[in-house]
Structure formats: C-alpha cells, structure tokens
Design brief:
heterodimer, A: 262 residues, mainly alpha, 13 helices, disordered N terminus, disordered C terminus, B: 100 residues, 5 helices, 2 strands, 70% helix, membrane (chain B), transmembrane (chain B), AzlD domain-containing protein (chain B)
C-alpha cells in the first residue's frame, strides 16, 4: 500500500496525461460554445473604452464571463468601483456553492492544487466534474478541463478584440445566446428526478421575475429557492438518491473505481 | 483606474471560488447540506440562462418573435433527444444566427 499521508494521486505520468486529456475532451463542447461569448467580452471591452491589453487582462485575470460583461456595462454607464464590486460579489457568489459542493474532493489536496483548481472553478468546470456516473474525483481530469477552458476563453476574447476593431455592431449579433444554449445543454441531462425538475422550474420562474423587477440579487435568490424546493420535494416524495454530487452514495460505489498505483 | 477595477474584481472572484476549498476553514458539511448542494448546478445555471431567454429589453417576451425563446426551445428538445452537449449547442446556435 502507498503511504496515506499525501492525498495527491500517486498515479503514473501516462495516467495523469490520460486524465488530463479526458478532462479536456469532456469540457470541449463547452469550450467551443463559449467562443461567441468570449468574442462578445473582448469586443464589448474595447467598445467601453478599455485598451486591448486591459480587455485581455479581464479574461486572463478575472476569468468570469458573466461578471466581466455586467461590470463592463456598469463601467460604460459610469458607475463607481464600490457598486461594481458589490454586483460582482452577487454574481460570483454562486462559486461559494460550487466550492462548498467540491470541498470534500479538493480541500485535502496540496495548496498548489487548491489554488489552481480554485482559480479555474467555473460553471463549466463544476458541470463536468460533477456529471455522469460518480467516478473517483481526479484532479488531473479537473485540471485538464479547467486549463483548456481557460485557454479557449482567452483565445475567444482575443478574437473579439481583433474582430471588434474591424466589425461594427458585434454586440447586436446576439452572441449572448451562446450562453443560454450551453447552459440548457448542461441542465437538461441533469433533470433525472422529479425533485430536480421542481428545482429547475422554481429557479427559472424566480430568475425571470427578479429580472423583470430588476432585483440585483435575483440570481442568488432564484438559485437558493430552487435548491430548497428540490430538497423539500425530494423529502416529501421520499426520493432515495441525491443528484449530482457524491452525497448519499454508499462508499462501495466509489471503491470499485479506485485507481491502483503503478 | 481600469486596472484597479480589474484587479479588485479578480480578487473578489478568486476569493469566492477558493474560500470554501480552504481546509483551515473550520467547516464540516452535514449530509443534509451536501444533498442541498447537489442541486446547485441545475439551479444556478437555470437562474443564469432564464432571464436571457424570457426577458428581452426588460419585458417578458413569450412570443414566437423572440428568437432567444424559439432557439432555447429547440435546444431543450435537442438536449432531450440527443443528450449530446456539442450537438445541442452547435445546432441551436446555428439556428439562432440564421433567424436572429
């Protein structure tokens, strides 16, 4: 048996590369689908008055599409830093939920891994890391997914910066539909139980209502109410297994997939 | 000024992503909390895309002249039928750029 004091997988280089590649492939549809959105982020930043370097830095350093686009709109409207940061916090607060959901898997890893995967933790990475049959969490798989998505987002932003200097009215093409298409493609396959359907419908309705009344915390309100409805529905109907994460699974389900050291 | 905005936004985003991954934070999740969090992905993703699809120019847009809604319905049907993320996104986006 290998020593148990380090949680970092002791797998061989080909195993790591394989997992990295599987992560890259798993996120690939999402990387492609985020391209129109990245183009929008790059070209809109220029339109708002950022330099090409600042526009690229937004994607490279912040790496959060929805927060970037909303902040750009606020910068354009001349709104101050304080309001921009509070709005950013509201939009990005969903990552607190993601981090909490992945805490049992990522927090035992060494600092470098935690910082790296923390920086790369997007909606898309969370979706692929928690999707399908619950295999043992592999940090190399998550790194492959996260890094390739980061690269795709930044290349798309660059494309937007280059195209934005030559094409007018890029913002009116409706590039933001890309995000709707991607998220629909991510959500539908997760709806496997009545409780998840209830969760999605409640979240959808409240998000629309909040948007109509311009409630800034709408995203968070809708998501938390949707999650609560899902839990309540599952309890009322006596659903057995939980969706998504490892919660509620018997330990032997994971043990069958345990990787053996080379 | 722009760099101050970029760097402070980056700090807010990174902290929200990293904070709860930090093992020094004394936080133990009960089974109940974990099952609650299992619903986070569908709930959050839905809350992001729903306003894009149903709200245009600050108003509820339920008509067939709303190409976001029409293509979202097509994407939903494709996702249900094919269960394929790539096919769903590419076909519905292609349709969107055709009719928008």
């Amino acid at each position: 048996m290998p020593s148990m004091n380090s949680v970092e997988p002791q797998s061989s280089a080909p195993q790591k590369a394989g997992a990295f590649l599987r992560g890259t492939l798993a996120v690939l549809p999402l990387t492609l689908a985020v391209v129109p959105w990245g183009i929008l982020a790059g070209s809109f930043a220029l339109e708002v008055g950022l330099t090409p370097l600042e526009s690229q830095a937004m994607s490279a350093i912040i790496f959060a599409g929805s927060a970037q686009l909303v902040a750009l709109g606020m910068i354009k409207a001349g709104i101050g830093l304080g309001s921009i940061l509070i709005t950013t916090l509201l939009i990005t607060s969903r990552h607190l939920l993601y981090a909490m959901a992945m805490r049992s898997q990522i927090s035992p890893l060494p600092l470098g891994w935690r910082l790296g995967l923390g920086f790369l933790l997007t909606d898309e990475l969370f979706a692929i890391a928690n999707q399908g049959k619950q295999h043992k969490f592999d940090p190399w798989y998550a790194l492959g997914g996260g890094l390739s998505f980061y690269l795709g987002w930044n290349l798309a932003t660059l494309l937007g910066i280059v195209a934005g200097q030559s094409i007018d009215n890029l913002g009116e093409l409706g590039l933001d539909f890309a995000i709707a298409a991607t998220f629909i493609a991510l959500v539908i396959p997760t709806v496997k139980k009545p409780s998840i359907l209830v969760c999605v419908l409640v979240s959808l309705t409240l998000a629309v209502v909040c948007a109509l009344f311009e409630v800034q915390a709408g995203l968070l309100i809708a998501a938390l109410c949707g999650m609560t409805s899902g839990v309540v529905c599952a309890r009322l109907t006596g659903e057995s297994d939980m969706p998504g994460t490892q919660a509620g699974r018997p330990p032997e389900a994971g043990a069958a997939h345990e990787e053996h050291d080379a | 000024m722009m760099w101050l905005i970029i760097l402070s936004m980056a700090a807010v985003v990174f902290i929200s992503r990293h904070l709860l991954l930090e093992p020094k934070l004394p936080l133990r999740l009960s089974k109940r909390t974990q099952s609650f969090l299992g619903y986070s992905a569908p709930a959050v993703l839905t809350a992001i895309f729903a306003p894009l699809v149903f709200v245009r120019d600050g108003r509820l847009a339920l008509g067939l002249d709303n190409s976001y809604l029409v293509c979202a319905l097509v994407a939903t049907a494709l996702a249900l039928l094919t269960r394929n993320t790539l096919l769903t996104t590419v076909l519905s986006m292609g349709l969107f750029f055709l009719i928008h």
